[in-house]
Automatic annotation (TrEMBL):
GO terms for molecular function: hydrolase activity; metal ion binding. Belongs to the cyclic nucleotide phosphodiesterase class-III family. PANTHER family: CYCLIC NUCLEOTIDE PHOSPHODIESTERASE CBUA0032-RELATED, PHOSPHOHYDROLASE. Transmembrane segments: none annotated. InterPro entries: Calcineurin-like_PHP, CNP_phosphodiesterase-III, Metallo-depent_PP-like. The keyword Cytoplasm does not apply. The keyword Hydrolase applies. Pfam families: Metallophos. Keywords: Hydrolase, Iron, Metal-binding. This is Phosphoesterase.
Amino acid sequence: MKNDYYRKPLLVVLMGLLLVFNSCELVEYSPYQVKLKESEKDLNRKNAEKIAALGLKPTDTLRIALISDTQRFYDETEDFVQAINQRTEQKGHKIHFVLHGGDISDFGLLEEYRWQHQILKKLKMPYLVVLGNHDCVANGDKVYANMYGPFEQVYQFARNRLILLNTNTMEFTEDIVRLDFLENNLRDTENYDNVIVLAHVSPFDEDYDRKKEAPYAQLIRQYRAYPLHGHKHTHRIMQPYNDGINYMIIGSVSNRRYVELTIVGKKITHEVVDF
């Protein structure tokens, strides 16, 4: 009887410890913790592989939907997904993928990234996201790196090259605009017909490093790149350097608009679509 008396409370303690250890995986101790499921990791690379699997040819018409700054606009993002899914079902109007111009989160929190991904994964086509300045708040840059990959990325679909670049100079103490990376991926012009550079903050924005503005614009001009940016929330096309290069600002999804980019050979056109 004496042995049973001590054995029962010991069993209760052991069972309690077992429950605690087993539940550790279910508890997030901090909103700044970066703990992702395997299905949430490295999404840009995974989605780029899906685009590559489409087997696009240089003669194919390529259609890309552009959005940006979805951050806290969850209802509008839901409506965009529904609208673009319906549009791609139209005969002869397939949307091949979506480009997101950054600020997928507002405060850089893991749950914000997750909420947006839960919406965007309902798209009937892959999507790729560049890093935005809000995405860097708190430890959001670490969340982005785990969920979407490196801050600088390059992909190619048929003869169309896509370069993702980090231009959020206000959010980092170190020099982060990697013009060497940009130039290295622009230089081999014989290997592409069109090159799109997607970066959240434009070189002429007040939040951009002034020392990097002229060399950035020079590279875009020299290689006749097609620059896309977010950050300002309102769709605009401009030539800030009077050099024949159109810079596009992709408006926030809160405006209930997106841009459809159409590429045929070396010709790129765009249309603003309300939803």
